[in-house]
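F.,

This is the one I mentioned.
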């Protein structure tokens, strides 16, 4: 058996190398060592893609670690479980307590990932055992995951090279609503981004079934037109990103004109600047599309203004948005 595992790339040394020391994951009320937080390979969520998740950032402030828009993320998480039909038994307050406990138990955490999944081994598409487990992981993605992977080191670029999807995305809401953060919804974007990476690009910008611009696989999309108006696709067919919502609120607060409107590829190529947003990305300027430079400067003035304001908010430096931060001493 050991030989078969090694042939598949699972050596004991490699597995231990990927387990960060002293990290614990909250699972159904107990803190479990990182390496012990496992489910069976035949579990329903592994086989059927039924795992629901949300992902939020943790920031250092003068008062200590704080989770960004925790309650908004949990509201979206609960809504996703409802869209998928998972019988979640924890309340929003239960989940809030779990997230803060996980952050306290894992000093230096930069993100929190909360997951709801069906751990039982199942044959039918509808599980006989409908117990939904909840796991909350608080960790540093670069130090605890990326740095422990063998091979090419993680490279972060301050701006992003975009490949525009050439095939219309056929994500049908009658199969799975695009607002649901469920594992199955990420298979098609994964394939598309993989192809973009093979072409030498950092990210892909997906289009919807009408050929209008939609979003990245894990990001939302904004552009600034020649008149200085911030524009982004409407929420009907994109994930309701918490960072997306935050940027819209900050823009309106700062007097930047905003439009949520259908956008065509030609709108992107004519834009003065553009950027992606997300929990990991923050405000991530786009420097080129399909190899063609975008705008006269990267980041542009609107992108820079919003990026700096957003960073100031996450650090606790703007009293007007202090309510977006939940400190670990609150629970």
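My design for it:
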């Amino acid at each position: 058996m050991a030989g078969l595992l090694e042939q598949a790339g699972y050596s004991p040394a490699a597995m231990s190398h990927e387990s960060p020391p002293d990290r614990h994951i909250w699972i159904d009320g107990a803190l479990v060592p990182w390496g012990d937080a496992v489910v069976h390979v035949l579990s329903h969520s592994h086989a059927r893609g039924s795992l629901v998740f949300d992902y939020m950032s943790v920031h250092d402030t003068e008062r200590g670690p704080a989770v960004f828009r925790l309650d908004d993320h949990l509201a979206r998480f609960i809504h996703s479980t409802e869209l998928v039909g998972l019988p979640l038994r924890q309340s929003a307050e239960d989940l809030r307590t779990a997230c803060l406990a996980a952050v306290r138990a894992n000093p230096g955490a930069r993100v929190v990932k909360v997951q709801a999944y069906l751990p039982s081994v199942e044959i039918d598409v509808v599980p006989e055992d409908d117990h939904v487990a909840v796991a909350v992981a608080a960790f540093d993605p670069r130090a605890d995951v990326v740095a422990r992977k063998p091979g090419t080191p993680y490279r972060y670029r301050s701006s992003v090279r975009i490949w525009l999807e050439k095939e219309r995305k056929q994500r049908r809401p009658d199969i799975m609503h695009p607002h649901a953060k469920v594992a199955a919804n990420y298979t098609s974007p994964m394939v598309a981004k993989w192809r973009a990476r093979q072409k030498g690009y950092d990210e892909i910008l997906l289009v919807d079934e009408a050929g209008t611009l939609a979003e990245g696989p894990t990001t939302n999309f904004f552009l600034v037109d020649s008149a200085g108006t911030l524009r982004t696709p409407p929420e009907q067919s994109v994930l309701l990103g918490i960072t997306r919502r935050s940027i819209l609120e900050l823009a309106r607060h700062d007097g930047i004109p905003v439009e949520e409107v259908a956008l065509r590829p030609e709108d992107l190529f004519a834009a003065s600047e553009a950027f992606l947003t997300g929990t990991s990305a923050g405000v991530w300027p786009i420097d080129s599309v399909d190899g063609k430079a975008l705008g006269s400067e990267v980041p542009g003035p609107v992108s820079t203004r919003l990026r700096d304001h957003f960073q100031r908010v996450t650090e606790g430096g703007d009293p007007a948005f202090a309510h977006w931060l939940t400190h670990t001493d609150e629970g």
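The mean pLDDT is 88.

Talk soon.
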